[in-house]
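Recap from last week: sequence in, structure out.
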Amino acid sequence: MVPSGLLKKMSRLLLIPGFLLAFFLLSAVAQATEDIALVAHPAVPVDNLSFVQARKILLGNHQYWSPDLRVTLLIRAPVAPERDIILEKFYQMSEPQFRQHWISKIFRAEATSGPKVVFSSDMALELLVLIPGSITFVRADEVPKGLKVIQIDGRLPGEPGYSLQ
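Predicted structure tokens:
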């Protein structure tokens, strides 16, 4: 017969690995849903971009998908976590550097306008449907069916090695 005090200690010790396993599994699921997806209007003629190509588009160095289809960048307002990830990973700039980049591009007539600022993911997705050639970034779990998620370096959100985790 096992003393009751020892049985309680053993049951507590057995619970710890279970809690740790649940924590790690939930963390992995949360990571996949926190990936940022590059989403495009269905008329955009690409399904996959290299990281370098995507960066050129975001920097305004590539302004047309085709001769008659202009790139329209929809980007979240400065308080959005998606914007912070994009500034860090793609632009490799701080917020003031980002603003200065676009002011300089417009001043030098290298671009007619900067990115369109949107205040929510819903707003970004609504405008994305309405503006041919538009592209935006939203959390992967917020992308509705029917919109085009662009692969980056052949990978989609949630896949190992995806750039925007």
